[in-house]
Design brief:
mainly alpha, 100 residues, 90% helix, 0% strand, 4 helices
Length: 100
């Protein structure tokens, strides 16, 4: 398996985790998808930019997940998920390009 940038994995995990929960009706299953993607993204961030960057971006990933919930009340679920996924991807790219 080739290296997929952490930014892609993280954004995909946020979108995919919500999609799985929504389409299956099983929130825990969405959480599994979200957590799995977060673990893969963290491994990639650590590999490319070190432990400090991985820890910071992992915290941002969790904050993006949590932040999507109140944001969804203001703009709708899917727009909120896409907004936080985009923000997470940008944060990942900025940190890993600077650190790596």
């Amino acid at each position: 398996m080739g290296n997929v940038p952490g930014a892609v994995v993280a954004a995909g995990g946020l979108v995919g985790g919500y999609g799985v929960a929504r389409w299956t009706g099983k929130r825990p299953l969405g959480g599994v998808a979200l957590a799995a993607a977060g673990a893969v993204a963290a491994r990639e961030w650590r590999r490319s930019s070190g432990g400090a960057a991985a820890a910071g971006l992992s915290a941002a990933y969790l904050a993006a997940f949590a932040g999507a919930h109140p944001l969804a009340r203001k703009m709708g679920a899917w727009p909120a998920v896409f907004a936080v996924a985009g923000g997470m991807a940008v944060a990942s790219l900025v940190v890993t390009r600077r650190e790596g």
